[in-house]
């Protein structure tokens, strides 16, 4: 047998093995096996602003108008939860924020994007006093499968349908929602691993910020631009969005299991296991305690400008106020 044949055949076999490993990576090192659900099955559709009828809201030319408390809009903001909160926790939050009109969640609500964790969430959420409030959220990395080809769990998509008004030909859940005096833009940072996706998303984002008019612009994303914990820095997100999002009124992220404020950037953690803090040069406030927030804006205007936007941050354990953010258009 010729020498080149002895070399070529093993090389081809090695190449075929490498391709097989790549194709099977998702199956071998993807989502962990799903635990068996042994309790009662739950069926519930979360109300979102992708629907025609949203509890407590009416769709108008100015955006979604709050019909229950039209003088103000109050949104309960939750960070990483990982299916750790129970009904009593949600009831406590409802008691602390009795005027909440909606819930905003910034990823990793489910510990894994599997039916078991969805059922766990529904078991604790549906009997709580927060059940029925419209949900605004973006998926976290725990709602995606692992491996080379990351895919969003169909369980998440069925549970949290969101508006279909994102950038064209970009995977993930990018969308925006308009309220009077407020525009919320959701960026799904998980699938943004190719330059073309990043470019299209950035162009779409800049256009939405430019056309917001007098509305305050609040951006939600799971992976933060400025990391709040050691070892969590995402250079791709930082390089792509730092300059553009620096012009937003508020950018709320999660993922880092710590609290940090570096305006307009905020990182929240509601129930994820605390990470070691990473102190930045211009960071104003940091905390490792689990936190939640209330985003509020009045319906009135002052000198033809929207009333100030506020974000009050509270400690989850006792409801103590730990930080206040105040944004006002000149």
What this model shows, in words?
The chain is built from six helices and 17 strands. Strand 16 and strand 17 form a beta hairpin. Strands 6-7-8-9-11-10-12 form a seven-stranded mixed β-sheet, with helices on one face. A six-stranded mixed β-sheet has the order 5-4-3-13-16-17, with no helix packed on it. The radius of gyration is 22 Å and the shape is globular. It folds into two domains: 1-30; 37-327, Purple Acid Phosphatase, chain A, domain 2 (4-Layer Sandwich), CATH 3.60.21. It has 330 residues and is an alpha/beta fold. Helix content is 25%, strand content 24%.
What key attributes describe this structure?
330 residues; Purple Acid Phosphatase, chain A, domain 2; seven-stranded mixed beta sheet; six-stranded mixed beta sheet; 6 helices
CATH topology of the largest domain: Purple Acid Phosphatase, chain A, domain 2
Give the helix proportion (percent range). 10-25%
Q: What structural category do the secondary elements indicate?
A: alpha/beta
Rounded mean pLDDT is 87
User: How many beta-strand elements?
Assistant: 17
CATH homologous superfamily label of the largest domain? Metallo-dependent phosphatases
Q: How would the global form be characterised?
A: globular
What is the CATH first-level class name of the largest domain? Answer: Alpha Beta
What is the annotated CATH architecture of the largest domain? 4-Layer Sandwich
Oligomeric state of the chains in view: single chain
**Rg over alpha carbons:** 22 Å
Low-confidence stretches: none
Q: Strands of the largest sheet, in order across it?
A: 6-7-8-9-11-10-12
Distance between the termini: 82 Å
């Amino acid at each position: 047998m010729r020498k080149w044949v002895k070399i070529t055949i093993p090389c081809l076999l090695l190449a075929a093995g490498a391709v097989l490993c790549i194709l099977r990576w998702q199956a071998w090192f993807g989502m962990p096996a799903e635990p068996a659900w042994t309790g009662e099955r739950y069926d519930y559709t979360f109300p979102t602003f992708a629907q025609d009828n949203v509890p407590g809201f009416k769709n108008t030319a100015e955006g979604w108008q709050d019909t229950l408390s039209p003088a103000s809009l109050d949104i309960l903001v939750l960070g990483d939860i990982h299916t750790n909160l129970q009904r009593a926790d949600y009831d406590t939050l409802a008691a602390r924020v009795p005027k909440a009109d909606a819930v905003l969640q910034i990823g990793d609500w489910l510990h894994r994007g599997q039916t078991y964790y969805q059922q766990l969430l529904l078991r604790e959420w549906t009997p709580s006093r927060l059940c029925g409030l419209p949900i605004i959220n973006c998926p976290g990395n725990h709602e995606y499968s692992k491996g080379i080809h990351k895919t969003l769990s169909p369980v998440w998509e069925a549970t949290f349908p969101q508006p279909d008004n994102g950038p064209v030909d970009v995977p993930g859940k990018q969308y925006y929602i308009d309220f009077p005096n407020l525009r919320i833009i959701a960026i799904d940072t998980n699938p943004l691993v190719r330059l073309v996706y990043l470019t299209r998303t950035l162009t779409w984002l800049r256009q939405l910020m430019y056309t917001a008019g007098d509305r305050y612009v609040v951006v939600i994303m799971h992976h933060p631009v400025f990391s709040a914990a050691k070892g969590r820095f995402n250079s791709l997100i930082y390089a792509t969005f730092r300059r553009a999002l620096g012009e937003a009124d508020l950018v709320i992220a999660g993922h880092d299991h710590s609290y940090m404020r570096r305006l307009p950037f905020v990182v929240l953690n509601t129930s994820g296991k605390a990470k070691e803090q990473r102190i930045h040069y211009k960071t104003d406030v940091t905390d490792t305690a689990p936190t939640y927030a209330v985003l509020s804006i009045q319906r009135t205007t002052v000198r033809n400008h929207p009333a100030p936007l506020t974000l009050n941050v509270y400690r989850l354990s006792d409801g103590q106020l730990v930080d206040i953010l105040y944004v006002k258009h000149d």
